[in-house]
Structures are given as C-alpha cells and as structure tokens.
Amino acid sequence: MQKKKDPHIHRLRVTQTEPFSVLRSNMLVKTGMTMTEKILAGASEKSQLSPGENVWVNVDVLMTHDVCGPGAIGIFKKEFGENAKLCPRFCKDSYFSGTKVWDREKIVIIPERYIFTSDERANRNVDILRDFCMEQNIKYFYDIKDLNYKGVCHIALAQEGHCRPGEVLLGTDSHTCTAGAFGQFATAIGNTDAGFVLGAGKLLLNVPPTLRFVMDGEMPDYLLAKDLILQIIGEISVSGATYKSMEFVGTTIEKLTMEERMTLCNMVIEAGAKNGVVPADSTTYKYLEIMSEAMGYGKIKGSSIFLAEYRFDVSKLEPLVAKPHAPDNRALARECKDVKIDRPYIGSCTGGKIEDFMAAAKVFPASGKKVKVLTFLVPATQKVWMDVYGLQVPGSGGKTCSQIFEEAGCDTPANPTFGACMGGPKDTYARINEPMASYPFLLLNFPGRMGHREGQIYLASPYTAAASALTGYVTDPRDFMR
Fold first, then answer.
1. Which of 317, 334, 352 is the last residue of a domain?
2. How many domains does one find in the chain?
3. Staple partner for 275: which of 80, 187, 257, 479, CB 3.0–4.6 Å?
C-alpha cells in the first residue's frame, strides 16, 4: 500500500470555465465563486457570496422517506398549525389556508427504507406518509402499493427528473449529496429543518468553503468511481471535509458517466462534506435529455477561490477496499487476499445502479466459475430491476445480467429497497443477523450498519465485490480481468 501523502493545503485561486446559470429573478451572479457558491447565490437572490455567510436559500426540491418523513411531518403540523401565520420574511404569502405545504409539486416523498417487512412500526411509518400525501395532494409520492413505486430515493430522484443543474435539493437523508453529480446543490437536513421547509419553502444555510479535487489521467479498465472516492477519503480522512463542499473536476471526471459521478458524490458525506458537486456538462444534459440552451446555461469564465486543491493521477491507482469500521480505513484489495468473506452484497444507492450490475456481470463470465459464497443482488429501483432482466451485457453473447448472475450461482435479484443497507427489521432481505464478514458495495461500514453489531463490513467497487464472490476472499478484480 502506498504511503499516505500530506496534501499541500492552501487557499488557491484557480481560473476555470464552468457551465452555470441562475434561473431566479433573471439575476446574473458575478464570477469569482465556486460552483456551490454560485448556486447558493442564485438561490438566495444575491449577486455574490463568500464562505461563512448565512443566507436564506429558496428550495427547489425537498425529499423525505419513511424513516424521517413522519418526524418532519409531525414538526410541520406542530409549527404550521391551523391558519398559522408566517412572517413575510419567510414567505411572500403571510397566511396559509389551513395547514398546507409551501408547494405540493416541489416535495418528493419516497417510502423505500423498511418496506418489505412485517414490522408494525415500519408499516405505520409508510401509512403516515400515505395519509399526509393524500391530505396535501402531494404530486410526487411514489407509493409502494402501486406501479408508481420507484425504489431507493437517491437513484429514483435522478431517474424521475428531480435532479437538475443549478438547483437546490434538500433531503432528510445523509446521502442526498448524490444529486451533486448533476451540478446541483444537494445536502442533507434534519427533521426539524425539513418540517420548516415543508411550510416555508426556504432554509437558512451557511455557505461552505470548497475543496477542489482534480482527477486526471486515463482510468484503468479495472477501476470504477468507488475506487476513486475511497482513494480520496483515505487521503483526507472521514473528517477531512467537515462542512465543506467537495468539487470534482479534471479529464477523468469529464469522462465518467452520470451514474459513476453519482457514486463519487454519494460518498462525500463519508468525509464529512456538506455537499459534493460535479459541474454540469454535455454528459449531464444528455442524461437529462435536454439541451443546455433550454435551461439557460452557458459558459462563463471566472476566478474561484478554493480552500485547498488535491490532485490525483488516476492512471496510477489500484483497486481499493475500506476495511472495518470506517470508510477511510483504506487498503489495496491485493493486500487483503487472506480476508475471508461470508456474504457479498451488491446494491443500495451507491452500488445498485444498472452500471454497477453491468460491471459485476463482466467479471463472472471472465472467470468461468461460480460464486463460492451466497451473493446478494438488490437493484436500487424498479427501472434498474427491469434492466437487470432486460438489457444485454456487452460482450456476453447476448446474455442479460440476470442470466449471468444465475449461471454464476448468485441469489435472485431482489425487489428494490434500501433496508439491508441500514440494518432494518430482522426480516429484512440480506440483513446481517449474526457475526460475519460481509463484503457489500455499500457506502458505510460502521458497526451495526447492516444489522448485527459484530458484522465486519468491507467497502469496494462492484468489480472487486464480484471477484471476491468467486473466491470467498477479498480479491483484486485484475485476477479475472486481465
């Protein structure tokens, strides 16, 4: 394993050309700001912002799910009761007609945590969401009872068009930062803040300073974005970006797909970051199926001040794992070959996208072997689940992911849910109910994350997870991909 290098940290002025526009009040923000500062300036209707300023930010999207939603709803009803008055400072309309949310079309509610369970309290939470959405006529409620159900919130938000460049998305989940892949300011908030946003449509935020990560070089075909973010977190530690924005640029980033950018931004919270962001570009707009001109976006030149800059030559990186019990407990996969594993798991918001399953499906045929341990597959959304069964894997002779997984001896892909990633009730599919070494392509590995407190959780890319499933030990994917 390469020795950690102390990064050269200083306030750095960097000239950059980034796509950006503000779609509020026809106001043009000044240059000289980072992406996060630009977005928050537009959302607060200010021409200029600096790190450390407190500003009232207009919210474009508020997301909540079945774990936090009931609490946020309770606070909203308590604080914005029948005919509650609002100060004009918070809302242009001084009065509500009853207890109504600020905008029923800007709220996204997704039950997806503890849903496939007989646990009465978990089911009660979903009932609370259902009643509230009916009462408030919430437009974007993705119920589990009908075909409108989507799956894991962070992937569903992107698939359903709720992630848009230049906007502000707040969510009651730590990995709301995933949406930063779209050039959006996306961050987590607590139930109290969410209750306030439900009524007021805005929130007081402190503008974070920005760390810039420049990733250049040709990315080897045995690496994925999960390796990149584990490299970064191992470099700066789990507290290295506390209440800071992490901005990702460079030739490597420009070549990443949207789903890989989502993996990158998803895990910035594991470094303590307020948010992560990738400037929107042609890859972003192609994913969204829109033209940049249609959104009013263009190129502007400016000089931005970053708290620190980190540079990586991606061509020199190797497959990584994060050992228990912290995402910064970084090690080379090849150095952990004696670590026996009991349960590979590919799923969750970080590892349940179609490209993650496509990556795993490339490893199994290359080996010509069957898995040595029970391997769980949990697509993030209904769309991903259908793609696992419907899309052909390139170079496989026309086989789908599901066919390859079946031939390799993996468990049948399960219904989309986030349950096992958070432990969930004891009857949750793939939950760890006894001490074992799990090898999930997840986002967190602290004690008890997947259930049992003595479970040993290793984090890795889907390439490494698939290779390890074939041997029963932590395995460098290059052993099967050369």
1. 317
2. 2
3. 187
Q: Of 363, 277, 285, 284, nearest to 319 (Cα)?
A: 363
Domain containing residue 347: CATH number:
3.30.499.10
CA distance 65 to 77: 17
Please tell me the predicted confidence (pLDDT) of residue 286: 93
Angle in degrees, 0-180, between the axes of helices 258-266 and 225-236, rounded to the nearest 10: 30
Report the chain's C-alpha Rg in angstroms: 22
Positions of the chain with pLDDT under 50: 1-27, 83-97, 291-301, 437-444, 446, 448-449, 451-452
How many Cα atoms within 13 Å fall on the side-chain side of residue 460? 36
pTM: 0.86
Residue 464 lies in domain: 320-481
Reported as a single tens digit per residue, the pLDDT across 281-315 is: 999 999 998 534 334 333 334 568 899 999 999 99
| 123-134 pLDDT per residue, tens | 888 899 999 999
Distance CA 414, CA 375 (A): 11
419 and 283 share one domain: no
Last residue of a domain, one of 255, 285, 317: 317
Q: What is the per-residue pLDDT for 89? A: 41
- Tell me, yes or no, whether 240 and 366 share the same domain: no
